[in-house]
Amino acid sequence: GVGEIYLAYTMSFDSVSPDNIGFDAAIEFPPNNTNYIKITDEFTIINKNFSGEVFDYEELAKNYYKRKPVKYDLFKGAIPSWDNSARRPGRGTVFHGSSPKNFKKWLDENFKYTLKNISPDKRFIFINAWNEWAEGAHLEPDRKYGFGYLEVIKDVILKYK
Question: What is the pLDDT along the chain (161 residues), one digit of tens a residue?
């Protein structure tokens, strides 16, 4: 008695049209499925055993929000930051340049896309994540930005309310 089930798949490692695989919609899952601009060589790495990579956060965001609209329901995604060094010591993937200001730009672009391309009854945006500390993707307040990422969400929601 709950009605029709609406299925969306997470585009974690592929980017196919959801109707090709029996789904109704797709959900972006940054930082997967896009090209990154590597900037590792721009930094002096203190750990001589570091074999990870550093990429540009702002370019990652642009790669997502500058994508052309698709012919299916695509729920936009964003990450406030990313650094999975805690999960992969010495070989992590880091997106340098994340900040509440840069996240706000990404989220704002996601709102514009969603309002223009998604019907009102299906307007969702996905953020990875509330407290994914092992991947440095967290909205939860921290010592560096405090409530900055949460304030951004509030500001963008109020802007489009």
Answer: 888 999 999 999 888 999 999 999 999 999 998 888 999 999 999 999 999 999 999 999 999 999 999 999 999 999 999 999 999 999 999 999 999 999 999 999 999 999 999 999 999 999 999 999 999 999 999 999 999 999 999 999 999 98
Q: pTM, whole model, 2 decimals?
A: 0.93
- The answer to whether 79 and 31 have CB atoms below 8 angstroms apart is yes
Cα–Cα dist 41/14, whole Å: 28
Rounded to whole angstroms, the Cα distance separating 107 from 89 reads 30
Phi and psi at 32, nearest 5°, equal -75, 160
